[in-house]
Amino acid sequence: MTTHNINSELLSQKTVAFRERSHCISCGSSNLHSVWQGKFTSSPTRSFIEKCHYSEDAIALLGEETFSLIRCDTCGMVFHQRILTPEWLNLLYSKWIDDAQIERMEAEYQTSSKREILFERGRRDTRHLLRLRELLKSNTTEQFSILDYGCGDGDFLALAKLFGFKVCGIDFSTTRHHRAAKIDIPIFNNLESLESYHIGKIQAVTLFQVLEHLEDPLATLKQIANTMEDKGILIVEVPNCRGISQPKSFLEFHAVHPLEHINAFTPITLKKMCEQAGFISIKRIPAHVTTSFVDTLRTEGLRFIQPNQTQQYFQVHKS
Q: Which Pfam families match (predicted)?
């Protein structure tokens, strides 16, 4: 049966299918308690789901299904206990979410113009690349290699390629594979496919807004560590869910999205999980991409004061 037929068959069902995670995704404890729960179709969750502008009638498909955001009393990790089955997760990201949906969704909460958003994203990505070059340059004289896990259309990798990095990406979307192929960037479905390509050890891995979507983020981090060279650099960025239990604003709902953001990290729990996977936290060195003297001074202050946030840098040590 083709993927298209499977998707059509699933969509013909009256409701979606879920499964439960009974142990902590970080420490494995079963000492869990609920901090926010309810029905997808009850207010105010229904209103938030409607604002996601999915291409399918999510409310009708969700029916009487419930969600439960739980906290581990052992390590403090927060995550959704009930998550979509793999088949429905695939349908969510391949059918419910498309270009039109993303544009409508962004219109709900982005206040800056598209021009400013793209410019700031370019500045951010350039700073990451400058830091990576500084952190990696003592390890090798060869071309630096970057893997962007969850690379989307490959925009970050396209910029990295211009800076002289050897690049590759992983993304589950076939549509995005085709887009990235147009700019000659190799994109794979998973780490196993990457290994079969004999691309060699990776010196840097980036995970921008990815771990919050994964059923088993710790296993993914461990697998990533195995693909990296000794003293390789990992950059991780996730929504900061510190202080959010029962969301009130649109942005808080989006941070703990009960369908998409199934893991709710804080700076502490993100650091713990990455360390469990074999990474060591390192300081994020300043990098300047600005014409403003004030911005330069503000950035230099980060040499002495590291904000507690969910964009973090790590290094893997294998010796």
A: Methyltransf_23
At 109 the three-state DSSP class reads helix
Count of all residues that appear for the chain in the document? 319
In this prediction, residue 5 carries a pLDDT of 54
Domain that residue 48 falls in: 3-107
Residue 186 placed within a domain: yes
Residues 118 and 184 in one domain: yes
For the stretch 161-189, pLDDT in tens is: 999 999 999 987 666 666 666 777 888 88
Q: What is the pTM (predicted TM-score) of this model?
A: 0.90
pLDDT band at residue 9, thresholds of 50, 70 and 90?
Answer: low
Answer yes or no: is 297 within a domain: yes
Q: 3-state class of 66 per DSSP? A: strand
Q: What's the rounded Cα separation, in Å, for the pair 274 and 222?
A: 8
Give one DSSP letter per residue of 263-285, joined into a string.
Answer: EE--HHHHHHHHHHTTEEEE---
Cβ–Cβ under 8 Å, residues 306 and 247: no
**Does one domain contain both 98 and 123?**
no
